Amino acid sequence: GASVPYSAIMEHLRAELPGLALASHTVASPQIRNRGGVGGNLGTASPAGDAHPALLAAGAEVEAESVRGTRLIPIDAFY
């Protein structure tokens, strides 16, 4: 999910999403990697977002929720 810290991604998704696990190693300091997650990275829309290229390459989808319901948005259409 969006709140999974980068350190958990590095540990548990190494086989399933190697690009994202590798990109997670480049995120800030260990303190940030232990608290920060992909959701915050995407939510800030920073051009320096470490997860963006790996998510694009993996064909990820973002689950967005509003008062009208939940929908899946392809990562390349998210911004």
List keywords for this structure.
79 residues; alpha+beta; Uridine Diphospho-n-acetylenolpyruvylglucosamine Reductase, domain 3; two-stranded antiparallel sheet; 42% helix; 15% strand
Q: What's the short version?
A:
The protein is α+β, with helices and mostly antiparallel strands. The protein has helices at 6-12, 18-24, 30-35, 38-43, 52-58, and strands at residues 61-66, 69-74.
Would you spell out the secondary-structure blueprint of this structure?
Elements: H1 6-12, H2 18-24, H3 30-35, H4 38-43, H5 52-58, E1 61-66, E2 69-74
Describe the structure.
The protein is built from five helices and two strands. With about 80 residues, the protein is of the alpha+beta class. The chain has one domain (about 5-75): Uridine Diphospho-n-acetylenolpyruvylglucosamine Reductase, domain 3. Helices cover about 40% and strands about 15% of the residues. The radius of gyration is 12 Å and the shape is globular.
What overall form do the CA principal axes indicate? globular
Structure annotation, total helices: 5
Task: Report the sheet with the most strands, covering strand number, pairing sense and barrel closure.
Answer: 2 strands, antiparallel
Structural class: alpha+beta
As a percent range, the share of helical residues equals: 40-55%
Low-confidence stretches: none
